[in-house]
Amino acid sequence: MQLALNQLAAHLQKGLRPLYTLHGDEPLQLQEAADAIRAAARAAGHSERSVHTVQGAHFDWSSVLAAGGSFSLFADKKLVEIRIPSGKPGKDGSAAIQQLAENAAQDDSTLTIITLPRLDAATKKGAWFGALDANGVTIQIDPIERAALPQWIAQRLARQNQRVASGEAGQRTLQFFADRVEGNLLAAHQEIQKLGLLQPEGELSFEVVEQAVLNVARYDVFKLSEAVLSGNLPRAMRMMDGLQAEGTAEVLVHWTLSEDIRNLKRAKDALASGQPLPMVLRSLRIWGNKERLFERVVPRLSANAAVRLLHSAHVVDGIVKGLPADNWPSDSWQALRKLAVDMVTALQGPARRL
After folding, report:
1. Is residue 324 in a domain?
2. Among residues 125, 141, 157, which one ends one of the domains?
């Protein structure tokens, strides 16, 4: 049974299932979801806990199966946690997980929590994951998108009876907060807790938040890609500064931007030949938020602009590798910034008929 993360609290109030599977790459929300299940399990009498971390191809799955089936003299209910950091249990693990899932439906004395990283579509169609979904509760934990981060921060502040000013001033404060903790919910959580310790309940001014919140942004090239495709040039430049400061390799940033340019060109050409854009994007393996961004910008991109961007990406590839080019900055990071600016400019042109 699939369950949305925001439904977990209400679900736990109604009663526990014997098997929970949490999968996703957002550590704070994954940790909080597991903590909530653990707390409910302890309240229900699951006082004996064992933790198993699956590492390597020769992991002993028999010990995991035995942990759920063994009898304890000290506790009649157990909590078994299985952590699979790779997301790939292997052949033996697949068989063991299917057996464990089937046993869980018949044994309410053991509650099992399985944690996994983000899983691709093929993995979620596998027999072992299907057994987990059929016999327990599965919860996919997705990252908080940048657009939703200010509201998430406001909700967390409200939990400790704090809030920002109403109207535009408050939104400015939340946007500032979100910018400073870009992509790092754990850091955002820590900063919110710090505000709860340092400041009284009630309204928080922009100046108070500005002084309290550290620059703990976690910049990554995939978020840079989204910033450029969404046309948010200030955010893209800020992220470029952060990537440079963190020592990110220029070649990785160039690969990210140039891969987007290549896919934009492919999508534009396919669209011009009469192919439906959704089908084109699926063939290019463009999913999720990036798919929505491509659907918006591809019709705006002219064929000539797509060709120019492809040429610019080739030029910057040479600059990153130490080859100078006329009318381009010699510094790699400055050339990458110019490429990002060119992309934003090209993608914000008026929609054109093909």
Report:
1. yes
2. 141
